[in-house]
Amino acid sequence: MRQVSFHGEFRLIGLSRDQMPTVAEAIMEEMLKLEESGTGLFDSAVSVDVGKFLVEIETIASATDFDVATAIIRSSVRSAFHATGGHTAGWDDVVIEQQRDNMKLLSA
Fold first, then answer.
1. pLDDT number for residue 45
2. What is the pLDDT of residues 20-29, one digit of tens each?
3. How far is CA 64 from CA 2, 43, 61, in A?
4. CA-closest candidate to residue 34, choices 59, 8, 9
5. pTM of the model
6. What are the domain boundaries of the chain?
7. May I ask the CATH architecture of the domain 2-88?
């Protein structure tokens, strides 16, 4: 199994500062639902910078290989935005920083 970590910042356009915390909370709820659905996603976190209209998402996916884990992350983050009423125009052009996690847990 491979684990891929993701950290991304997304500027939310068309929202007021007052709406930002509510939207960030809804995105987090959706990420947790996706974790519970058994997709291989785990350890998700969402934070918000109201002043900059940014939502920051961190998560990890575990899968048989790097490409599958990356696909899980991309589709999960996009699904979370859609579930909260967000739009993802140009999503395929988004560059996601990817990092392999090659560590193994060794028995004592």
1. 98
2. 999 999 999 9
3. 6, 18, 10
4. 59
5. 0.83
6. 2-88
7. 2-Layer Sandwich (3.30)
Report yes or no: 45 and 51 within 8 Å, Cβ to Cβ.
no
- CA gap 7, 15 in Å, rounded: 22
Q: How far apart are CA 77 and CA 104, in angstroms?
A: 26
* Residue 10 CA: distances (Å) to CA of 1, 37, 56, 107: 28, 24, 6, 39
User: Which is it for strands 41-49 and 54-63: parallel, antiparallel or unpaired?
Assistant: antiparallel
Give the chain as a 3 state SS string: CEEEEEEEEEECCCCCCCCHHHHHHHHHHHHHHHHHCCCCEEEEEEEEEHHHCEEEEEEEEEECCHHHHHHHHHHHHHHHHHHCCCCCCCHHHCCCCCEEECCCCCCC
Cα–Cα distance for residue pair 34/41, rounded to 1 Å: 7
